[in-house]
Amino acid sequence: MTYSITQLAALAGLSTRTLRYYDQIGLLRAQRNPTNDYRTYTAAQVDQLQQIRYWQAFGFTLAEIRHLLAQSPAQQDALLRQQRGASGRRANPPHTLAEQSRPHLSGPPRRNSHDRFRKVCRFQAATSYRQSAGLR
User: Is 30 helix (H, G, I), strand (E, B) or coil?
Assistant: First the structure.
């Protein structure tokens, strides 16, 4: 399944401008429709965007995320553990979110894109609330 930039922005809760920026900086490259040059996104790119949002929830910058995406899964896990310890962020993200962001390491059934982004947005909102309230 492919998504237009508008569909993916609505799905992920982002603006189309943010997706264009991610494309511009090389973080999430869109495919181009040869007939009209519109941006389109595949299921693999939706998964990558979900992973980008996951890393953002732990306070990684876009430059750090670009670096993380180029690393092996083991190196990504080590950097995440290091970031958790340094920032004092929640030590254990929701189990299902961790499984969804690492489908190549875990074996749960894959959920559709809407379910994955809904969980990421809930996790980010809860983390933001805890930080603003001074909770862990």
Answer: coil
DSSP string for 35-80? TT--EEE-HHHHHHHHHHHHHHHTT--HHHHHHHHTS-HHHHHHHH
Largest CA distance in the chain: 52
> Considering the entire predicted model, what is its pTM?
0.63
Domains and CATH numbers, the chain: 3-132 (1.10.1660.10)
The C-alpha atoms of residue 116 and residue 102 are separated, in whole angstroms, by 12
- Answer whether 65's CB lies under 8 Å from 56's CB: yes
Q: In the chain, which residues have pLDDT < 50?
A: 89-109
pLDDT of 11 reads 92
